[in-house]
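Lab notebook, design round three. We kept the backbone fixed and only want residue identities now. Task for the bench partner: fill in a sequence for the structure below.
Input structure tokens:
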């Protein structure tokens, strides 16, 4: 903002809404300047874009509270407000109490001082002597110092990410309920093979499988639909299963070997909740 504009603002006791908006617009670069001067080690819950937004809010507050009659320049007033807003936001996201953090900083300075003086790492007893703290306070603070580091699941876990770059910690964490990718792939492949095998069944066997597993009809009901006896439905069902097992296991045609099939007439509908039943129903729905 030029000198003439500032003089005009200085001559006014109360700024208009338009003048305050212009101050915010003209001094937006000051927010970047303040952020650049702060030696920030950001918590994982914040990034610089978040802090820039907070700084803009501080600048807007500065424009609202600024009074030219007080004699201070707006730049100074805005700098204080922007910096204060950013620091307040950082304190909100700091999970460690300030007193504990101050003590850890004190020990850090003492440790460097003792190490420079004696040429080795300081012991807790030497740190207690250097800082004036008790040995218990030193040991407690050292434990807290190790616990103050925060990790983000988005952080890099190393160089095991292959062509996609470093792996994230999130990629290395396995939830107890998370499915196994290999099992999922095998299941998808089996569903595809099962769908193809069902399509290759003779017409009656295929209809029995669909009506029994997908439509959840009983053998008697299937017999009524197809116009055959319940025992004949059971035979068709057994043959269909034998054919499917043969195709899915890549074994010789079941006609060339003895087939032992369990009768299913006595099974209630609720007892048919098998993986085969689920897969057939899903494949029938997709078709």
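Proposed sequence:
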């Amino acid at each position: 903002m030029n000198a003439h504009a500032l003089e005009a603002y200085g001559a006014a006791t109360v700024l208009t809404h338009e003048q305050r908006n212009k101050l915010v617009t003209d001094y937006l670069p000051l927010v970047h300047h303040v952020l650049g001067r702060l030696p920030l080690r950001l918590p994982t819950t914040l990034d610089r874009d978040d802090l820039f937004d907070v700084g803009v809010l501080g600048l807007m507050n500065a424009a609202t509270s600024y009074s030219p009659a007080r004699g201070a320049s707006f730049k100074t007033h805005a700098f204080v407000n922007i910096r204060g807003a950013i620091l307040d936001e950082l304190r909100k996201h700091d999970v460690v109490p300030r007193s504990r953090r101050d003590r850890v900083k004190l020990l850090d300075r003492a440790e460097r001082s003792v190490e420079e003086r004696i040429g080795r790492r300081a012991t807790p007893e030497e740190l207690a002597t250097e800082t004036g703290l008790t040995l218990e306070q030193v040991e407690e603070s050292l434990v807290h110092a190790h616990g103050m580091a925060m990790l983000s699941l988005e952080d890099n876990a190393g160089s095991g990410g292959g062509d996609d770059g470093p792996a994230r910690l999130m990629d290395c964490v396995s939830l107890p309920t998370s499915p196994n990718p290999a099992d999922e792939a095998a299941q998808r492949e089996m569903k595809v093979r099962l769908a193809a095998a069902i399509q290759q069944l003779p017409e009656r066997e295929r209809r029995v499988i669909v009506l029994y597993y997908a439509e959840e009809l009983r053998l008697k009901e299937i017999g009524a639909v197809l116009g055959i006896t319940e025992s004949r439905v059971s035979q068709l069902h057994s043959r269909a299963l034998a054919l499917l097992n043969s195709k899915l296991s890549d074994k010789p045609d079941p006609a060339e070997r003895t087939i032992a099939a369990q009768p299913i007439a006595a099974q209630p509908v609720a007892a048919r909740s098998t993986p085969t039943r689920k897969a057939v129903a899903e494949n029938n729905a997709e078709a």
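Keep this in mind before ordering anything: Residues 1-11, 251-275 have pLDDT under 50 and may be disordered.
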